[in-house]
Structure formats: C-alpha cells, structure tokens
Amino acid sequence: MPPTRAGRSVGSIALLVMLTAILTSCSGGGEDDVVRIYTGRHYDLETAFVQFSEETGISVEFLPGSDAELRERIAAEGEETQADIYLTVDAGNLAIATEQGIFSPIDSPVLEAAIPESLRDPDGNWFGLTVRARTLVYHPDRVSATEMPTTYTDLANPEWAGRVCLRDSSNVYTQSLVASLIAHHGEDEALRIVSGWADNAEILNNDILILESIADGLCDVGITNHYYLARLLDDDPDFPVELAWADQDGFGVHVNISGGGVTRYADDPGLAVQLLEWLATEGQSAFVNGNHEYPANPSVEPEPLIASEFGTDFLRDELPASAFGGLNAEAVRLMDEAGYR
Amino acid sequence: MTSVVVDDRPDCEGSPDPVGSSERAGRRVNLDFGDRLAVLSWPGAAWLAAVLVVAPVAFLATSILSPRGDVWRQQWETRLPGELVQTVVLLAGVSIGTLVLGVGLAWLTSAYRFPGSRLFGWLLISPLAMPSYVLGFVTLSVIGFTGPLQGWWRAQLGADAWFPDVRSMGGAIAVFSLVLYPYVYLLTRAALRDQAGAAFEAARTLGASPLEAARRVVLPQLRPAVAAGVAVVMMETLTDFATVQYFDVDTVSVGVFRIWRGTFDRDAASEIATLVLAFALAVIGLERLLRGRARFGEAAGRASGIMPRPLSGRKAMFATGLCTVVFALSFLLPTVQLVVWAIERAGSNNGTPVTGRFLDFLTNSLILATVCAVICAAVAMVVTNASRFGHRRSTSLAARLTAVGYAVPGPVVAIGVLLALVALDGGLERIGLGLPGVVATGSFLGLVYAYSVRFMAPALSAAEAGLEQVSADMTASARTLGHRPSSIMARIHFPLSRTSLATALVLVAVDSLKELPIVLLLRPFGFDTLSVWTFNLASESRFEQAALPALTIVVFALVPVAVLSLSLNARSDAAAAAERGTAPTGEGLL
Lengths: 341, 590
Fold this sequence. Notes:
The structure holds two protein chains of two kinds.
Chain A: H1 5-26, E1 34-39, H2 45-56, E2 59-64, H3 67-77, E3 85-89, H4 91-99, H5 109-114, E4 127-138, E5 164-167, H6 172-200, E6 201-204, H7 207-216, E7 221-225, H8 226-235, E8 242-244, E9 254-262, H9 269-280, H10 284-288, E10 294-295, H11 304-309, H12 321-325, H13 328-338
Parallel strand pairs in A: 1-2, 1-3, 5-6, 5-7
Antiparallel strand pairs in A: 3-9, 4-7, 4-8, 4-9, 4-10
Helix pairs in contact in A: 6-13
Chain B: H1 2-7, H2 9-13, H3 22-61, H4 69-77, H5 80-111, E1 112-113, H6 117-123, H7 132-143, H8 148-157, H9 169-205, H10 210-239, H11 243-246, H12 252-263, H13 266-291, E2 309-310, H14 313-347, H15 358-389, H16 392-402, H17 410-430, H18 444-467, H19 472-480, H20 485-496, H21 498-514, H22 517-522, H23 530-538, H24 547-580
Parallel strand pairs in B: 1-2
Helix pairs in contact in B: 3-15, 3-16, 3-17, 5-6, 5-9, 5-10, 6-24, 7-9, 7-14, 9-10, 9-21, 10-13, 10-18, 12-13, 14-24, 15-16, 15-18, 15-20, 15-21, 17-18, 18-21, 21-24, 23-24
C-alpha cells in the first residue's frame, strides 16, 4: 500500500521533531563558566584544556577548523558569536583578524609580563602563546661542512639547483617566511631570492614530506618548521636529517607564533582572559610540549627532546610578528611573480 | 531509506485497478483542489529551489560587478594562464579516464557473463566510498618518492634509477579516474538495465550483430546517462582543491584558495571563483551537447534489461582480470593499506585522544548524510517533474540553476550560506521575527541547507536521467486519462525512475559523508563528524593516524553503496524473471 496522507503527515512531524531536537541540543547555552574557542590550532588542545578545567572548574569547549574560514564565521556572526577566543597559527592570521575587528584589546599585566613584546600585538589584541622556528634542515652525509648553507638566501644560489625541497606558496608558513624576507631585504631582493628558490627547488606540500624526501635522497636541504623534525625524531631517533639554525650571523632564524585573543563579542571576557593567562604561564608546558614547540614565555623551559636535540641558545629574528603578518598578501603576490608554486 | 524505495515496488506494480476504490476517490478531491494551484506551483516549486540554491552563491558573485582590475591583471600575468591550461588538461584527462572505465566496465558486467561478473557488478561501485584525497594520499605514500615501492626500486637499481613521476598531472588523472568512474558506471548500468538493454535485445532479434547493435542502438540511448555521469565527474574534479595539491597540479580552484587564504582578500578570491563557475557552465553546456537532441523514452512496458552472454576461455580470463585490477587499484589495496596503518597506529601511544567520542562522530555523520540525501532526492524529484509539467524552457532553466552549487568549491558555498543566513537573520530581526541565538550560523539547519546547495546536482542528474526514460507520450497519455501531475509523479514517474532516485539518494549520502569544508565551517559546537576528525589529524600531517577515521568513512559510505548495488541486482533478477515468465505489463501502471 502506498503510505496514506495521515501516515505521511505523522512522518513529517516526526522528522520535524527530530530536527528540532538536534537543533536545540546543539545550540544550547546559558550554563555558566564556559569558555568557547574557535581554533585553527589543533595540536594537543585537549590535554591543556582538560588540565585548565580541573584546576579552575571552568569548562572549555572548542571548535577546530580552518583559520580563514573561522575568521569569516566570527565576523559574520557578529554580536551573536559563541566564540570567546579565536586561537590560530601564524602571525598573518592574527594580523588580519585584528584588521577585521574580531578582537577586543586585552589589558592584562599577567600576559604582558609573560609574553615578550615581539610576540604580541602592540595594542593587546592578541598574544603569541607558542613559538615555532622555520629553519634549514639537511642530510649530513650529502651536505659537507664547507658547503653548508647558513641563510635562506643561500638556497637561491645556483649551486643548489635540484638539491632543495621547499614548501608550496599556498602554505601560510612559506608566506610568513617570504614576508619576513620582504621586511628585511626589500621587495626587489626578496623577489630575487624567491626566484632563485623557484629555479632550484622541488616544491612539496607538507613539511613531513620535505623531511622524508631529504632522508630518501630526493634533495639534500630544505626549510621546515622545527617541530616536524622533532616529531620524526621522536618516532625514530636515528632519522637521518639534521637541523641548522638559519641566519645566525644576520637577522636570526625566522620564528612564527600560534596564539589568540578575546573576541569582541565574548560573553564573558574575564573568563577568556583568565584562560589565556593560564595558557601563557602555568599552562605553557601542557600547551606547547605535545607538539615540540618552544614556549612563548621565556621563563618556561622547553621540553627535553628539542632542548637537547636543537638547543635553546640561538638567535631569533626579532622582527615583530605583527610586522611580517601585515606583509602576508604582499608575499603571496611576490611568489606568484617569481613563478614560485 | 534506499531499501524502502526498492521494497515498495510490488505495491506499485500490483495495483491493477488504479481508479475506483473509495480511498482513491478521496484523494482525487484533494488533487482537484491542489490542481487549481498546479499551474503556478510546478514552476513555482522549481524556481523556489533555484532561488534557495543560487542566493548564497550570488552573495559572493556580486563582487564580480565591481571587478578588481589589479588582482586580475596580476593573476593574468603570473599564474592564471597556467592554471587555466592545467584545469582543462585535468578535466579532459579525467573525463576520458572515467568514460573509458565507467562505460567499458558497465558494458562488460551487463552484457557478458564471466567468472565473478555478478560480484564485480557491484564491487566496482565501491570506489564511490573512497574520498579522492584519501586515495591520493595513500598512492603518494606507497608509490611516491618516499614510499616503500620506490625505496625498494632504488635499493635494487641505484639511487638514480628512473621511476615515473607519481606527483604529476598523470598521477592526478589516474587517481581521479579511479575514484570517480563509478558515477559514470552507475548511471550507464542503470540505463542499460532500464532501457537500452531492451533496445539492444530488440536490435539483436532483428538481426543486428552485437557490435552493430551496441554502436547503433545502445550508445545513442546511453548518451543522456553517460553525459550526466561525466558532468558529475567533471564538477567533482573542478571543485577539488586538496587532491590536486598532493599531485602538484595547479588548477583555478587552487588559485582561489591561495588568494583567499594568502592575501586575505575574499572579494578577489570570489572573483577568481567565478572562473570556476564559468568552467562549470561550460561543463553543463557540454553535457547538453553530448546528451543530444534525442529523447528516449520507454514506449510501453517495463524494461527487461540485457541478457548477458557467456564468455569463455581467454576472453573470460581477460574480463575477470580487468575487473580485478580496477577493483584492486581503486578500492581494495588502498583500503588494506588504511587497515594496516590503523592497526600499526593503534599500538603506538601517539594514537588519537578522542577515540571515546567515536560513536558521536559516527552518529552525526550518519544523521547528516541521511537528512541531506532525502532532502536532495525529494527536491530533485519535484524539480525534474516540474520541467515536464510546467513551462519547459523556464523550468529547465530553474533546474540548471539548482545544480549550480555543485560547481562551486565547498568552502565558497559555506561562506555564501553563512552570509546569506546572517542576512536572512538580520532581515527577520528587523521585522521582529529574529531567530533565537545563532540558529542562522552554527546550526544543523544551516549545515543541511549548505549541503543541499552543494549536492543538489548529482541528485538532479540521476533524477533527470531517470525521468528521461519515461517517455513524454506516457506522461501525456496519463494526463489525457485525467490524472493530475502530482498523481502522475507519484504513480508513474516515481516508480519508473526509482532506480535513478535510489542512485540520487546514494550519491548525495556518500558525498555528504565525505564532505569536509562545509561541515568544518558551519557546524554547531560539539557537532563533529568523521570527516572533521580526519581533518584534525591530517591538518597536523598526522596522516597515518588519520587512517582510522578515513577507513570509517570508507566503510560507512560503503553501506548505501552496497544497498544500492543489492537493489540493482535484485532488479536485474526481477527483470530476468519477467523475461522468462509473463510478458511485461505496462498497462498495470496506469
């Protein structure tokens, strides 16, 4: 028998009820002491947040996603946003979020004491919480001490043709590095460097692949974030790739941050600030160690693997994160012009 | 729900006396009332669907009205020409690949009997469950430069031993062809069974050789289905931006994301995205062209399908071998690799910390996929019927517009829906009907809406291919006999195009299970799905740990695929039985 009219109505009512139930169960609210976070950073968040909740009784809910899309969502949601904090990787993302007016400035002596000036927004819109260095990696058997490159610029020289693996231009880490080259060397010189890279390099689309390609002989040197190598060394202590801090006689190695700020329409900015303060102090280790990152707070020790393998005593580029963050768009256009994929 | 669609078949066939019972008389009254609105309501419904789909896309496309000359010039002088060329090459390559695999395998498994032919008939659908980004990643990990195969190769023949470059256009075309051919395969098989098969048998009876019958009768009849399948394939390829990047292929979609995420310029990115749309329009035009002017409908009666001829000896071995190779490369081997990784990683302490919420992820994925599939199939049914009942030209334009979301990359749809809903919320608030909280953005409804915008096209394609098999004469006869459009839809069009509608349900459900960018952006707090879980791991380059969620997607996407293939088999059995037994009874349907 075909379903009767009444049967169909019952069916559609049931569907409606189900939908409503799902809807309301998801958009609940009103509980107290919850901090909600939209986050583009995904590394080991649960560990840190669980610990925070246990210590303070404040619960943390987080929604992982892509940086750019989450920013669009916060902007579109406006006053109705559920996000109290926007966390993201890369200074470029933080700079543009500030420009879009997503953040409200934080006035917190705790955060200002914990985070060095170069790792936070001058107006207090956002604070860096973890530090990652983007530096040279190489195969010790195939790169002799005499020819060892020491700067990012060296990899643009013709002798490295066909021996370099680099990350693609769609990647935000590459964009920030190129932005810092523009800031330091000016646009013309940066274009020359990136064109040289484009001539020399095999362009790959993730850092792990770059490291494995060096290990397997596709290329001899590359540029990656330090923690990817740490992760591979964690799995296999004999992984045959080593790290060299770039530009130690010049500006220092390019460091980027992951960090966040309190959103403009946060329900309870006080709680949000409390969480950021905790992440910048007591919670630093829980937040950075799982991903082998360096703490943004200089008084916190990095975890043992990177401390022993890579050390802590190296020159960091002091270029403010907000400065190269603002040059991101410039960097993308420059890479397009240089023919750098 | 697919099983319901299949199960109620006897009801529709077994209603020898359609008019007369009191229940039916009662329904007639309702229809008469409804019919007064019908003149307006069929095109109206189609256009409503079109507007709902187009609105979010239009929100973004308005930026093209004030074009950013500097961005276009800069892009045109740098990467855009290369991106255009690569997009065209990729689309052409994948179309040819899926056409050859899809039509070839469908014909092989429908027209011949060889060891395993029935089994392969449905096994060959399974790559539908394999997201292209998963096959892409597995391929690179296993036979890419750093994979074990090339490592072994270098160990044998020296560090500089030649090996084909896997990270290349060729590699991308191969991967897309392997995961996408089922779209062509499915629709071709459905057409062979529902319609073209009968014509083939008729031509054979009239003395045509098998080849001649295939070329002159079957191929022309397959054109609508094949064209629809290839169009779906091209759209999937066009809007992909993850797999192409694995293979270092620089398409226009990649360009859109580089500009959006890199220069933070949403307007400029949406302008470049209109190029993707232009490509999609070209694809739709091409589909119309390929489909040709011809309209084939069942003259009367139900299709009896094709009678498979047995192959023997070398030919049979070759057929079995070919099917085995395609199935192994596209589905079996990558799945085995995922299982191996999942087991390896389960033992390490770096496993995923959220395994406890596995059931949550799974339920969310399944609910979302089911709701979206039902909505898309229902809307597709109404829209395709509207073009038969309403004013043909305007309603088919509406149908084309309804499909437009498929031509827009997922994240662009997501942002469009977000902006549209926020605007709607704002509008409602102004007239005092504000939605509570953030219903507009982070809600299940918003999510379903965005999915429907994005995945209406495969449902439409399938529904249209289904309806095209019902001849206009049959519809006209029913109308002459006094039946209302809604009654014809429910009692003639629906039963006759049921296989195609089941296909529509499956295509949307599977696409929804695999979908990532939309759910990532529009989901409510706490509503995580399997694809979100995969993303969380993959975005940290923890690909091997992502094997478990990826595998789960594959397994659960396989369920609707299996239901569909079983129902297809059941139908061919029924068709064969009908052939052996009584003559097909078309009258029963009226």
